[in-house]
Amino acid sequence: MRSIRTGGAKRKNIAGGGVVEVSKRLLRLWPWLAAITSGLLGAAALPPLDQTWLIWIALVPLCATILFSGENTRHRWLRDLLLGYVAGLTFFWSCFFWLTTVSALGWFILQFYLALYFAVWGCFCGLMRPRPRKIVARDKWSEMLARAKPEPLPASSPWLSSGHNFFLALCLTAAWVALEWTRGWLMSGFGWNGLGIALHGTWPLIQIAEFTGVAGVTFLVVF
């Protein structure tokens, strides 16, 4: 009986250790899977699949993994850059697959350049990441209470500020639009498949294109 119990306990420990190991691997992989998901969602929202509704959530996985993970990473800016690059490679390889009818090698190589724009935006997104602020005592009474009760003051989350969140969204959107615009003329221009193109069939929302072009529609999508 003891041997049976011991064997059962060992199997449980092995199974538990396996679950923990799988969980650790998933935690390491999920940021990269999120970046790939963003690329696939963006590509699916554009022709020929034309799943327009996906464009509204396409950048959410990439933003989430950049803003809310990797706190203990040594070179976090490089990680953000690479996450954006992976998302860009996935997006452009999926969108421009039709280029294989012209040149498979050209299709493969071109995306390494185009993905740089996603990478720059990912790095910028990381730089705009809010840092937690500590509440500092501003008067003598608060200082005396803090000394009498030496506990760490709670950190105030910048995510609770609507003004801060609005400013962050505005900056990230402006950066995305600027990068798409730059992609349209730099190095002979590859301005194909801006995110605003996904709304080509949504007539009420694309009326602003008369004044702003695709850039204005992209701003609406990303913001």
Notes on the structure:
The chain has 223 residues and is mainly α. The protein has one domain (18-130, 155-222). The chain contains 8 helices and 2 strands, in the order ααααβαβααα. It has helices at 2-45, 60-68, 76-95, 104-127, 140-148, 162-183, 209-212, 214-222, and strands spanning 133-134, 155-156. It has a two-stranded antiparallel sheet. Helix 3 runs antiparallel to helix 4 (104-127) and helix 4 (104-127) runs antiparallel to helix 6. It is globular. The mean pLDDT is 81.
Sequence of strands across the biggest β-sheet: 1-2
Radius of gyration: 24 Å
Let me know the number of strands.
Answer: 2
Oligomeric state of the chains in view: single chain
C-alpha termini separation: 65 Å
**Mean of the pLDDT scores?**
81
The largest β sheet comes out as: 2 strands, antiparallel
Low-pLDDT runs: none
Classify the beta-strand content into a percent band. Answer: under 5%
User: Number of helix segments?
Assistant: 8
Q: Which H/E pattern describes the elements?
A: HHHHEHEHHH
Indicate the percent of residues in helices: 55-70%
Structural class, judged by helices and strands? mainly alpha
Number of domains: 1
Query: What is the overall shape?
Result: globular
